[in-house]
C-alpha cells in the first residue's frame, strides 16, 4: 500500500510512518522541516521526505493519506487529497485501523504521567515475553524508538479468572488532544473499544489544553465518555488519590475497576487494592525503592532508577494493570522495573559538567513541575536546585494556573523564568511572569532571554548544584549550550 503522511516529522506522525514502513508499506511524508531527531530517523529508514506542502505531493496512486492534527483544512495537500477522493484518516484513526485491530489495546491516559507509565507498561510486557506492540508519545530509553509493531500472535494469559489465548497486547498512550481538523475529539476515543477486553489506566484528571477545552466541565466530559466506552469485559485501573477520577469512575464505569495509590494518600471512600509505600532514596545509587502491597499482602521491595513519588505511583499502576489484565507475575514486573531507564525529556540527566547535574524535563503544568522538582530535590539533597522554566504550551502561557505555579516552584532554591513561548495570547489572559517572580520571592527572577539565563547559570551555578531545564519545546537550544559552557568555564 502507498501511504503518505502530511506533517510527518512530529514525534507521533514520524513514529506512525515508521510503523507503516515496518509493516511493509511504501511510505512518504511531507513537512516544513526535517530536524533531528525525527527527520534523520525517517530518512535513514528509507521514507521519502518531501519538504514543504505542495498539491503535487498527492496523486491518484496513493491509497491512504494520513493528516496530522497540526494541519489545517487549507493545507494544499489536504485539499488535493479531498479533490482526488483519496482515503484520508488521522494519526489515531490510522493507528486503530491498521495496528490496533486484531490486537488487545492497553491504553494509558490521564492528564499526567501518560508517557512514563505507558513506557513502563511496554517494558514490563516485553520483559514478560508478551512481545507487545506500542505507540508512545516520547522516546523510552529501553527501546530504539517510541513505537513497534510487536507480535500479532495470540498469547496465553492467566489471571484470577482463568487462562485463555488472547490477542497480543498493543500499548498506546491515550492523548486527549484532538485528532484532526475534521474530528476535533480526543485521540483516545479511537483507541477504545477495538476489542471486548481493553485494558485502560487512568492516571489523573486536571484541566489542561485550555486552547481546545475552555472549561473544567468540557475537559472532564471527555474522560466521562472515555470511561463509559471501556468494554464490559475490560479492565480500568485508576489512581485512587484523584477525586475527579474517583467521581467519574463511580458514575460512568461499566467494567471491572481496580484502584491503586501510595501509602498516605487521601483516597476518599475508595480502598486501593494495589498500594506502594515510599522508602528513602539510596544515597549512593540514587535509586528510588518502594514496598508493594496487593490486597493487603506484602509483595516485596522494588527499586526504580527514575526518582520521585510520582514515578512510584506510575509504577504501581503499571504493575497492577499488567498483573490483573495480562497475568504478569509480580516478580517479573519487579525485575523489569529494576532495569527501566526512563524516558527522554522526563527527568533526563544530560550530563554533569563541572560537577553540576543538568536535567531536561517536559514539565510545564504546575502539577508536573512540582512533582519533578520534588523528585530531583530528593535525589540531589546537597547543593542548590535551579528551576529554569520556559512557559511554552497553550496552558502554561495563560494565567489559568497563575496561583498554582507559586507553590509548584517551592522545592527549588533558585527559579529563573524565560519569556513566554507564545505571543499570540491576549495580554489579559497571559501568565504574568513578573508577578509570579514577585510572589515566589527573592529566589526567583525573570530572564530577558535565553542568552541572559545561560550567562547567569554559567556565572552562578556551583559544583554540587542541580539544574532542571523545564520546557515542552526546544528552549532555544539551551540544553547543549549550557552543557558546553559549564564544561568549558575556568575554575574559580
User: Can you tell me the CATH class of the largest domain?
Assistant: Alpha Beta
Radius of gyration: 23 Å
Give the biggest beta sheet.
Answer: 10 strands, mixed
At CATH level 2, the architecture of the largest domain is 3-Layer(aba) Sandwich
Overall geometry comes to globular
CATH topology of the largest domain: UDP-N-acetylmuramoyl-L-alanine:D-glutamate ligase
| Topology, number of strands | 25
By secondary-structure content and strand pairing, the structural class works out as alpha/beta
Can you tell me the CATH superfamily of the largest domain?
A: Mur-like, catalytic domain
Beta content: 15-25%
Poorly predicted ranges: none
If you had to describe this structure to a student in words, what would you say it looks like?
The chain has 492 residues and is α/β, with parallel strands linked by helices. It has three domains: 2-86, NAD(P)-binding Rossmann-like Domain (Rossmann fold); 94-338, UDP-N-acetylmuramoyl-L-alanine:D-glutamate ligase (3-Layer(aba) Sandwich); 348-488, Protein-Tyrosine Phosphatase, Chain A (Alpha-Beta Complex). It has 14 helices and 25 strands. It has a ten-stranded mixed β-sheet with strand order 8-7-11-6-14-15-16-17-18-19, with helices on both faces. A six-stranded mixed β-sheet has the order 20-21-25-22-23-24, sandwiched between helices. It has a five-stranded parallel β-sheet with strand order 3-2-1-4-5, sandwiched between helices. Helix 5 (114-127) packs across helix 8. It is globular, with a radius of gyration of 23 Å. The protein starts with a strand and ends with a helix.
Amino acid at each position: 500500500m502507498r501511504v503518505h503522511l502530511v506533517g510527518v516529522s512530529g514525534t507521533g506522525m514520524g513514529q506512525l510512518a515508521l510503523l507503516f514502513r515496518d509493516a511493509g508499506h511504501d511510505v512518504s511524508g511531507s513537512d516544513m522541516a526535517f530536524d533531528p531527531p525525527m527527520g534523520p530517523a525517517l530518512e535513514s529508514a528509507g521514507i521519502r521526505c518531501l519538504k514543504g506542502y505542495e498539491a503535487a505531493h498527492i496523486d491518484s496512486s496513493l491509497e491512504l493519506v494520513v493528516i496530522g492534527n497540526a494541519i489545517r483544512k487549507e493545507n494544499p495537500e489536504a485539499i488535493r487529497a479531498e479533490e482526488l477522493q483519496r482515503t484520508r484518516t488521522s494519526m489515531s484513526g490510522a493507528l486503530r485501523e491498521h495496528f490496533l485491530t486484531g490486537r488487545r489495546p492497553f491504553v494509558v491516559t490521564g492528564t499526567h504521567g501518560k508517557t512514563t507509565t505507558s513506557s513502563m507498561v511496554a517494558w514490563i510486557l516485553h520483559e514478560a515475553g508478551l512481545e507487545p506492540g506500542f505507540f508512545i508519545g516520547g522516546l523510552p530509553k529501553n527501546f530504539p524508538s517510541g513505537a513497534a509493531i510487536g507480535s500479532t500472535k495470540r498469547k496465553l494469559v492467566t489471571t484470577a479468572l482463568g487462562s485463555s489465548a488472547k490477542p497480543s497486547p498493543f500499548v498506546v498512550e491515550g492523548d486527549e488532544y484532538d485528532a484532526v481538523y475534521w474530528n476535533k475529539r480526543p485521540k483516545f476515543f479511537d483507541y477504545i473499544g477495538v476489542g471486548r477486553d481493553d485494558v485502560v489506566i487512568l492516571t489523573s484528571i486536571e484541566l489542561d489544553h485550555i486552547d481546545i477545552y475552555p472549561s473544567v466541565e468540557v475537559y472532564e466530559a471527555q474522560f466521562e465518555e472515555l470511561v463509559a466506552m471501556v468494554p464490559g469485559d475490560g479492565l480500568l485501573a485508576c489512581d485512587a488519590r484523584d477525586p475527579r477520577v474517583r467521581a467519574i469512575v463511580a458514575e460512568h464505569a461499566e467494567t471491572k475497576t481496580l484502584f491503586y495509590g501510595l501509602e498516605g494518600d487521601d483516597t476518599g471512600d475508595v480502598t486501593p487494592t494495589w498500594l506502594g509505600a515510599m522508602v528513602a532514596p539510596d544515597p549512593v545509587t540514587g535509586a528510588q525503592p518502594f514496598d508493594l502491597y496487593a490486597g493487603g499482602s506484602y509483595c516485596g521491595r522494588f527499586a526504580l532508577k527514575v526518582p520521585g513519588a510520582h514515578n512510584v505511583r506510575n509504577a504501581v499502576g503499571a504493575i497492577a494493570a499488567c498483573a490483573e489484565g495480562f497475568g504478569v507475575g509480580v516478580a517479573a514486573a519487579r525485575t523489569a522495573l529494576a532495569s527501566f531507564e526512563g524516558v527522554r525529556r522526563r527527568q533526563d540527566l544530560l550530563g554533569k559538567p563541572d560537577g553540576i547535574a543538568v536535567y531536561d524535563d517536559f514539565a510545564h503544568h504546575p502539577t508536573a513541575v512540582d512533582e519533578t522538582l520534588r523528585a530531583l530535590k530528593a535525589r540531589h539533597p546537597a547543593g542548590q536546585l535551579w528551576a529554569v522554566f520556559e512557559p511554552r504550551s497553550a496552558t502554561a502561557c495563560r494565567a489559568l494556573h497563575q496561583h498554582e505555579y507559586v507553590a509548584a516552584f517551592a522545592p527549588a532554591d533558585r527559579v529563573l523564568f524565560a519569556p513566554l513561548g507564545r505571543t499570540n495570547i491576549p495580554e489579559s489572559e497571559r501568565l504574568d511572569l513578573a508577578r509570579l517572580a514577585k510572589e515566589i520571592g527573592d529566589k526567583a527572577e525573570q530572564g530577558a532571554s535565553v542568552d541572559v539565563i545561560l550567562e547567569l547559570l554559567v556565572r552562578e551555578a556551583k559544583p554540587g548544584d542541580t539544574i532542571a531545564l523545564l520546557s515542552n519545546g526546544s528552549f532555544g537550544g539551551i540544553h547543549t549550550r549550557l552543557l558546553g559552557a559549564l564544561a568549558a568555564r575556568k575554575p574559580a
